[in-house]
Each structure stands twice: as C-alpha cells, then as structure tokens.
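Human: Here is a favour to ask of a fellow structure person. Comparing notes only helps if you start from a blank page. I am asking you to supply a protein in sequence and structure-token form. Write it directly below this note and I will take it from there.

Assistant:
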Amino acid sequence: MYTVKTGEIMKEYNPYIERIKKEKLYLRNRSLEQNPNNQKQSPLYKKIRDHIKKTGEIINPLLVVEDGDLYKVVCGNNRYLSGLELGFTEFPIQVLKDEEVNTIREAVKNYKEINLDEI
C-alpha cells in the first residue's frame, strides 16, 4: 500500500497542493481510464510507474479542474494510472482555473508545432 506524501517541503514549494481521494478523480479521456492497456505499454508510463513504486510517492501533483463535486485530470494521466495500479487511495492535486487550463493547452499546442531540427 502506498500513500501520498505532501509534507511541509512540498507545501512550502507549492501551497496550492491538496490531497484528494481517488473516487473524486477521473480522466478527461474516459476511454483511457476504462481501457488503459495501451497507455501502460508506453516507456514513459513504465518509467513513471517504476519511479513512484521506488519512492512510494507521487511528487508532482495532478493538474485538475473542478467538475461539480469531482475533479477532472487535465495533466497527469500517467501518474494517475500508475497510482491506481500501485494501490494509491489519495493523490496530490493542484486545482487550475479556466484561464490556466487555456494557457497550458496553448503551450502544448505550440510545443507540438515546433520542429526542433529548425532551431
């Protein structure tokens, strides 16, 4: 059994981190949550899962938005799925405002459009 450690150091670094029960979280991509097998085969997923297993904690919080009394994960699919696989019952989260989500989406879009060979 693993637990989430959001100690004083983490709180000092980011006072907006909260802990939330897994039942209050869901992925924005519901099909990924229902059938995560392809995701679990990716090298990144395995690396994240192995790190969480080794340390016993999720260091970076899941970025979420409020959806009624639930929270939708907008960034952190691999951490969320790894935590579920490893038996986590709570996750560290940071609740984002709508404008923060839009900024992140724009940054990801711009990142995907960059051709690193041209730099």
